[in-house]
Amino acid sequence: MSKYLVTGGAGYIGSVVAGHLLAAGHEVTVLDDLSTGFREAVPVAAAFIEGDVREAARWLDPSYAGVLHFAASSQVGESVARPEKYWANNVGGTMALLAAMRSTGVRTLVFSSTAATYGDVASGGPVTESDPTAPTSPYGASKLAVDHMIGGEATAHGLAAVSLRYFNVAGAYGRYGERHDPESHLIPLVLAVALGHRESITVYGEDYPTPDGTCVRDYIHVADLAEAHLLALRAATPGTHLICNLGNGNGFSVREVIETVRRITGHPVPQVSAPRRGGDPAVLIASAATARERLGWTPSRSDLDGIVADAWEFARGRVG
């Protein structure tokens, strides 16, 4: 059994990973300022510290085997309007965390990165880690800057680090599920229509060069994602910064997601057509070959029905 610090562990993905760590027999401390996370999302068996990751040096000590770092601001639109917040929280927060890890001798890090580091992908083929990184928002740029920072830390100071670049994370894991404010992800937005919390779902663009004209995206179940983090802890090697994409390697269109929600929930989901949004590629799917080869990771919950059904159970459980 090892002891791990999970920054941002009161959020959607961090809470699921914390739960998986505990189930594997590890000791977990969650550090979260609750600015976007929820205290009730922290697993009961985890220790909890309400605090800022930029002050991690107050709590980190040599008893920790490693850090799983999720604490970040993550709204693309907000990052355009308030870039300074994203540089301060995402880059400044990680810089302070790395300094705390260096001073305490904690030498293993798994970082929550994002496909937003790639920016607009024109090829339509599966995105690999060797594809160009050209983020189109301060959010993506801040995550890419952190990846560069971690790479330098590994080379100069022997950090064992893995960055996991997520594509579209969805689904739920028991009582841990997705609830952002504001919400920008398709599946919870469509489920909100099914629940009667929204009048309709807007479909941006129906003339893309895809089978049904709507954008195609790679959805990964949050529990599969969590399992990749535990494998990343094992794969982390001193002096090396490994970057892995996480996705299913196949995609589902916006229209397929809406139809699946209608079928799973049994509720009507009115939709409204709107013009394309700038910067939305027709197809965005991941090549997870590196994760398979280097982590030994294979997603096992890749069907859209299962992803939507789990998210629906969580959403219904929150009603009232």
What features would you highlight for this structure?
320 residues; alpha/beta; seven-stranded parallel sheet; three-stranded mixed sheet; 14 strands; 18% strand; globular
Topology overview:
Layout: E1 3-7, H1 12-23, E2 27-32, E3 47-50, E4 66-69, H2 76-81, H3 83-104, E5 108-114, H4 138-157, E6 160-166, E7 168-170, H5 186-194, E8 201-204, E9 216-217, E10 219-221, H6 222-235, E11 241-246, E12 252-253, H7 254-265, E13 271-274, E14 283-284, H8 289-295, H9 304-317
Parallel strand pairs: 1-2, 1-4, 2-3, 4-5, 5-6, 6-11, 7-10, 8-13, 9-14
Antiparallel strand pairs: 9-12
Helix pairs in contact: 1-6, 3-4, 5-7, 5-9, 7-9
How would you portray this structure in words?
By secondary structure, the chain is α/β, with parallel strands linked by helices. The chain is built from 9 helices and 14 strands. The protein has helices spanning 12-23, 76-81, 83-104, 138-157, 186-194, 222-235, 254-265, 289-295, 304-317; strands at residues 3-7, 27-32, 47-50, 66-69, 108-114, 160-166, 168-170, 201-204, 216-217, 219-221, 241-246, 252-253, 271-274, 283-284. The strands form 4 sheets. It has a 7-stranded parallel sheet, with helices on both faces. The protein has a 3-stranded mixed sheet with strand order 12-9-14. It has a two-stranded parallel ribbon with strand order 7-10. Helix 5 (186-194) packs parallel to helix 7 and helix 5 (186-194) crosses helix 9. The chain is globular and about 55 Å long. The N and C termini lie far apart (39 Å). The mean pLDDT is 94.
